[in-house]
Specification:
Number of helices: 6
CATH superfamily of the largest domain: SPOUT methyltransferase, trefoil knot domain
CATH architecture of the largest domain: 3-Layer(aba) Sandwich
Number of strands: 13
Oligomer: single chain
CATH class of the largest domain: Alpha Beta
Shape: elongated
Distance between the termini: 38 Å
């Protein structure tokens, strides 16, 4: 069974036994889906959960060559759609890693509010700095669009694939069992809006705090943010005409890659409290 590819996540404290420098590995173990403060476990993204799962391709490489799991090692597999299972490694060879898994469980790490970030295309690799923390915060999907002031007018298949891999890496590392969707960009006029909609607008009279109670009670929320040059007045008015609430994001100017993450954090960190 082939598994979707996810590259190694790094950072934080080194895994027990790893030493920096001298060619030694510094591999960051993932947090358990159970959310236990001190429990860490090697996690792997698989296509389907079952009693016996063969992991091949990049995910097998990650387990075998990066984490260096051996027969008998404990692992946690997740399907990217909200379920996970604990188990052990039963076989390791050059082509595959075989897992024996226990009962599949629904993750408790997912927020109750379904949050979409509708983000205008940004220059360079700035979208990576949106997708990674958005995944950690619990965002359900990132919906890309092209607006009038976008300097980037399209997104290559290679860059889209990279963003999706970043989401996979971040989900594996932070203990989520859902991998957020990163959707292909659409024109502004075709942008879909789900649930309660909030658009970041420096010219708005009020801030986000005034709306948080309503948003916390909603089933779905979409936050819309513009590119480096911002959304123009006509675009903001079009969103407001579709029911969006326009809000300021404080007295300081946030970067285009900071604003969507800040909006998601304002809601999702409270939602989990």
């Amino acid at each position: 069974m082939s598994a979707r590819r996810a590259r190694t996540a790094r950072g934080g404290a080194p895994r027990a036994g790893a030493v920096r420098g001298g060619g030694e590995r510094d591999v960051q173990r993932a947090w358990s889906t159970t959310g236990a403060r001190v429990e860490r476990v090697d996690r792997v993204l698989v296509d389907e959960l079952g009693e016996s799962v063969e992991v091949r391709g990049p995910e097998a490489h990650h387990l075998r060559d990066v984490l260096r799991v051996r027969v008998g090692a404990e692992v946690e597999a997740f399907d990217g759609r909200g379920r996970y299972a604990r188990g052990t490694v039963t076989a390791v060879d050059r082509e595959r890693v075989v897992l024996a898994l226990g009962e599949a469980r629904v993750s408790t790490a997912e927020p109750r509010v379904d949050v979409t970030l509708a983000v205008a295309l940004l220059k360079g690799d700035k979208l990576v700095d949106v997708v990674r923390p958005a995944t950690e915060l619990g965002v359900e999907r990132v919906r890309l669009f092209v607006s009038t002031n976008c300097e980037a007018r399209d997104l290559s298949a290679v860059k889209l694939l990279r963003l999706r891999r970043v989401a996979q890496e971040a989900a594996r590392q932070c203990g989520r069992s859902v991998v957020p969707a990163v959707e292909e960009p659409v024109p502004f006029a075709a942008l879909a809006l789900d649930g309660e909609v909030v658009v970041g607008d420096p010219a708005a009279e009020g801030g986000l705090a005034a709306h948080l109670d309503d948003l916390l009670a909603a089933r779905a929320v979409t936050f819309v943010t513009g590119p480096e040059g911002g959304l123009n007045e006509a675009e903001v008015m079009a969103l407001r005409g579709r029911g969006a609430r326009a809000v300021r994001l404080g007295p300081r100017v946030l970067r285009a890659d900071t604003a969507p993450v800040a909006m998601a954090a304002a809601l999702l960190l409270l939602e989990g409290s």
